[in-house]
Structure formats: C-alpha cells, structure tokens
Amino acid sequence: MAKDSRMRRGPLIPLLALILVLGCGVALFGSCTEGALPAGGTLSAPAESGTRPQQTAQEDEEEYRAVWLTYLEYQQMDFSSEEAFRQAVAAAFDEVAALGANTVIAHLRPFSDAMYNSALFPWSHLITGTQGQDPGYDPLTVMIEEAHSRSLRLEGMINPYRIRGSASMPAELSENNPAVAFAADPERADWVLTQGDGLYYNPAIPEVRQLIVDGVREICENYEIDGIQFDDYFYPEGADDSFDQAAYDRLADGADRAAWRRENVNALVRAVHAAVKEVDPALTFGISPQGNMDNNYNIQYSDVALWMEEEGYLDYVMPQIYWGFDYRTAGGQDRFAFENCLADWLALPRAEGVKLYVGLGAYRIGAGDGGSNDQAEWASGENLARQIAALRTAGADGYGLYSYRWLFWNDQPVAQPEVAAIAQVNATE
Fold first, then answer.
1. What share of the chain has pLDDT > 70, as a percent?
2. What is the pLDDT of residues 345-357, one digit of tens each?
3. How far apart are CA 100 and CA 418, in angstroms?
4. Where are the chain's structural domains?
5. In terms of CATH architecture, what is 61-427?
C-alpha cells in the first residue's frame, strides 16, 4: 500500500473552515439529510475518552468511511512527547471527522515492531528513531482516546510478515525483535527470509503464524481498539522457489507450491479472525488486498475470494481500487477502470455478514494513475467524491481513503477542492 511521499504540510486553517461549512451544507447546499455530519463535525454524542463509541442497531449499519494513517504519516509527526503527539493526533482527527469519516485505520505494526506497549514486539523506531527504545508514553492509547472522544472508530493496521521493507526501513533491528532471535538460531534461521533488501517472516512456519496471532490478540485484549486490518502484503512480490525452499522441502509433503503457499496464508487469516472474535465478537477483522485479483492469488498467494465466500476468515474486504474511471492500460484495456473493477469485486460471492468496502487512492490527486489516456479526471477536484457516489450506487458498503497526508498535507491546488467535495458528498448522503 505504501507509496512514495512527496507532499509537505500546507496551510490547513482555510481548508478546515471550508470543510466545516460543507460538513452540514447549510450555507451552500441546504439542510443536512439523515445520517449527515452535524455542525462541528461530530458523528454522534462524544464517547467517554478511551472507550469504544457506543452503537445502536441502526448505527451498526452506518456506512464505513475511513482514512488511513500510515507509517509514512508518522514520519512527519512529532513524537517527542505525549503532549506533542496528542496535539498532532487531535489536529488530524479533527480533520478526519470534519471530512465526514467515522473510522481511522492507524498503522500499529509496520515492521515487526509496535506503536504500542507490547510484550512481543519492540517499540517502533518511528517513535524515537531507535527500534526498541521506550518513548515514555503509549501512542496507541493517545490515538484511541482522541478518536473515541470524537466518536471515531480506531482500527489497527498490521503488516503481518514484513520485518524490514528496505535496507534503511528500519536501518537497525533491536535485540528484542523476534526476527533477530529467529535469525540467530540455526534451527530457526529460515523463519526469517530475505527478498531483495527486505526481510519477511516465513508464512509457512506454524510458530511464526502463532506469533502474529498472539500479537493481534495482545492488542485486542489490552486496548479499546475497534478492529484489526491486515494490509495488502502477504508473500512478497518476486518470491521465487528459492524464497522458501527449505520450508517447502520440510513441510509441504510434495504439494503444489502455489496451493501450499495459499494455504499457509489461509491458516493465518483463519487463526487471526478466531482470536479477534474470542476477545470480543464485536471487534472487526478485515483485509485490504490489491485491487488486482490476479496479483493477490498468483503473486501474493492470498485467496481473497475464498476469504469472502467462506465463514471464519474476515468481516470485510477492502480492495484497493486505486484507478480512475478512465483508466486504460498501455494496450488500451479498461479492465481496471474504476467501475469495471468495482463490478468484478461486487460480483464475488460473500458469506453472510461479510462487507465489501473500497480503498480509494487519494495519492492520485493531481498525479493521475499512470494510464495510457488523458488523466484530467484526477485534476478535476472532485474525482474521489465521484467514486464515493459511484460505489454507493453500485451497492458497496463503504470506503477508505489512502491516505491522510494526500488529503491534508498536499500542496497541489486540486487537493483542497477534493477534500471539500468529499465532505459535501458525505454530508448529502
């Protein structure tokens, strides 16, 4: 999901003022409709700080409207003290609420590390600059308190297998990182595998899967979190047979390698879902895979269609449909054009209760999606709002915007109109 960061913080006060006006639409668009954002950007009466927002049966069916807050945003936030971080989070969550969203998806474990106090994983280097260094406060507690005081849900996003994304991210692993202990033990050396400059936990190892499950359970038991989401990284792209040959020879019993890899991931997803529900059946577990189904199945070995169709895997899937309405491949194919790709996902069978949300690419604003055609739609100042309207018409259950910085720290002129248009389409729903 991660994209390169090229945006800097721009002036936000005029933008917030505009959003707060559009949030209810009184001045420009008439009175609020049922379910619209009330004045001040609060979805309902503020919840007690640090507790999950209370929901009625009707609110349980509320459209899912999320904004991702990723490790790339964390790199531009002030973690020097609890007070400084709380101020940064409060400002961000005010903007999310004013947009008409109801959920923040916050990155909690991007690199086998933790943005929270964990007995299993070291403190993230994103907080102090050094993996394993205690910051003296708990960023997750702060985020939950600030989210719930605004009646925003807070879900925790996890990259289950990724230990290091590149040679410098993170540059050093702490001694108490589980990956360090695994790699130092000859009997467990293939529990950690290399792909390019990255390091990954081996999805084939049952003890590795248990570590990931225990990490999810730890969050759900110790924090008033509202859900867990897995990002779209499973087997790393480019993993040929040599990636996991030792584990395959030891564990696969001659099975087809691709099917064996998919079942390794399936086993993890089933176990995580069960752990989440054991802690609290009201908690959600979702996955945000790539929008390209072929890549999911054949490159990352994630059988998303199975997870959607059979009970016991997830509560929602949120494919990252990051292309525009007019997207065409270099060969002129329109398979991944927004409405076509959305229709393919909506056509997949789903078990009872499984929701389909749509990941939308806010990072495309002003930049386009790399298609062979004219990219004018991403310079229109309203493309994301058009996509929200289209997914509603098509019957999807909600959406997530990737990500916060491309909406609110984006110095391109079309970013502010995009934010205003999203606030308007939310207010008039």
1. 86
2. 999 999 999 999 9
3. 13
4. 61-427
5. Alpha-Beta Barrel (3.20)
